[in-house]
Amino acid sequence: MEINSNGKKYQVVYADPPWRYEHPPMGMTKKSIEYQYETMTLDEIKDLEIPFDDDCVLFLWTTSPKLKETFEVIEKWGFEYRTCMVWDKVNIGTGYWFRSQHELLLVCLKGHISPPDTSLRLPSVYKEKKKGHSVKPDFIRYHIERCFPDKNKLELFARNRVDGWDCYGNQLSKTIQRRIT
């Protein structure tokens, strides 16, 4: 699947893929992801044709059970893993081995993009209470914007349109006004 950008290339990509999960013998429940939104197979995510610039930073959300698959996506999309941040969601969620309370935001590079100024670097653990199923903290997107104000930005699998970003997703609804200039 190709993302039409009318020839525009992106130096910053923020993505929260709709990972498909294996279910235990008891099967899906109303808490299962597939009841919340349409998921994609690993191959469907890997095969997305995204207009990355030759110099690009990718901020990619994942969960602990999806780490192996996430690294396959990173490699297929032509990036190299650099580091990650942990989002502590405060409340304990579901899980088969451990009840998850966190998600991971991986930072990956293609070409050369400098890290943010030292005054903008965050701790590697960010704590904010979860607002809803798979809803990520707005703060993270706004922080990325502050760090890269002059770069073309794309949010993949977005739920809302955000000023200053091109957004792609099948759940796009309202527009969020830009908060940080």
Query: What is the oligomeric state here?
Result: single chain
Top-tier CATH class: Alpha Beta
Kindly report the CATH topology.
Answer: Rossmann fold
CATH superfamily: Vaccinia Virus protein VP39
Q: What share of the residues does DSSP label as strand, in percent?
A: 25-35%
Q: Describe the global form.
A: globular
Radius of gyration: 16 Å
Q: Topology as H/E string?
A: EHEHEEEHEEEE
- Given as residue ranges, the uncertain stretches (5+ residues, pLDDT < 50) are 174-181
**What's the N-to-C terminus distance?**
33 Å
Please count the beta strands (DSSP E, at least 2 residues each). Answer: 9
In total, how many domains does the architecture comprise? 1
* Helical percentage: 10-25%
The average pLDDT score comes to 86
| Number of continuous helical runs | 3
Largest sheet: 7 strands, mixed
Q: Can you name the CATH architecture?
A: 3-Layer(aba) Sandwich
- Class per helix and strand makeup: alpha/beta
Strand order, largest beta sheet: 5-3-4-2-1-6-8
Keyword list:
alpha/beta; 181 residues; 27% strand; seven-stranded mixed β-sheet; 14% helix; two-stranded parallel ribbon; Rossmann fold; single chain; disordered C terminus
